[in-house]
Design a protein that fits this description.
By secondary structure, this protein is α/β, with parallel strands linked by helices. The chain has 9 helices and 9 strands. Helix 2 runs parallel beside helix 3, helix 3 packs parallel to helix 4 and helix 5 packs across helix 6.
Length: about 280
């Protein structure tokens, strides 16, 4: 069996719900082989982030080169890059290996409120990494931070911010509506061809840790598997929505628990009958 291969370049979440761990789970759930480049180690759990240990930039470079020199990488997802030096190493690696699909999830602040991107790295993210992306996937606060503006609070303002981010040089922008209000969570895909909206019911659960990481890695998985961008976004939206809906089946930690990446394979009832 030959599986498409996707690469995640991101930070490690020691609790397993977000970051590299969420990306690899998502790739596996969607039938894609996952490789990884670790940009930082975090000490975190469902309650929050307590410490960050950054990977030296030369070791980020070493990971990128050794993976690309051996594996047929079809798509790359870039998540947490906390320092300017890490961004420079990644940009140099991307330019050297020229992957076809690049998905950038501009992880800036953890759901717990912890700052994950140094202030002096924001401009480098904006000017060096985003222009190389096939799609950028900010949530509402991240879109505002990228532009130095207040968070958009209506569809017209959200789409306008999407177009302003598009003008930074990326090929597409998906602004995620999970931080919005109302009965539906609406994501807006902005490209030069226009705007598409993807609506789904807002699910009442506190177990949403890793949602953004998983959406961007699901898009990456679909792109690695050969799907066009709009189909990849639609498939990723459906996958993550189902993972959120199934999140309360899991009982992980005492804070904001993870989504259920393997909801489609959940056969606990069968196991119970065997015991």
């Amino acid at each position: 069996m030959t599986l498409p291969i996707a690469l995640t370049i991101a930070g490690s979440d020691s609790s397993g719900g977000a970051g590299i761990q969420a990306d690899l789970k998502t790739f596996a759930a969607l039938g894609v082989y996952g490789a990884s480049v670790v940009t930082a180690l975090t000490a975190q759990n469902t309650m929050g982030v307590t410490a960050i240990h950054d990977t030296p930039p030369d070791f980020i470079t070493a990971q990128i080169d050794v993976v690309f020199s051996d594996l047929d990488i079809k798509a790359v997802k870039i998540g947490m890059v906390s320092r300017s030096e890490a961004i420079r190493a990644i940009v140099t690696g991307l330019d050297r290996w020229q992957p076809r699909h690049i998905v950038v999830d501009p992880v800036m602040v953890a759901s717990s409120g912890a700052q994950l991107l140094a202030a002096d790295a924001v401009d480098l993210l904006r000017t060096q990494l985003l222009p190389r992306a096939g799609i950028v996937t900010p949530n509402l606060p991240e879109a505002a931070a990228l532009l130095g503006e207040a968070q958009a609070d209506d569809p017209r303002a959200i789409v306008r911010q999407g177009r302003d981010i598009l003008a930074l040089g990326c090929a597409a922008v998906l602004i995620k509506g999970g931080h919005g209000s109302g009965s539906e969570s609406i994501d807006y895909l902005v490209t030069d061809d226009g705007v598409r909206s993807y609506a789904s019911p807002r699910i009442a659960t506190t177990n949403t840790h890793g949602t953004g990481c998983s959406l961007s890695s699901a898009i990456t998985a679909y792109l690695a598997d050969g799907y066009p961008l709009t189909t990849a976004v639609e498939g990723a939206k459906g996958y993550v929505g189902a993972a959120i809906a199934a999140a309360d089946r899991l009982q992980v930690g005492r804070g904001h628990g993870p989504i259920h990446h393997f909801h489609a394979f959940d056969d606990h009832d069968d196991h119970d009958e065997d015991l």
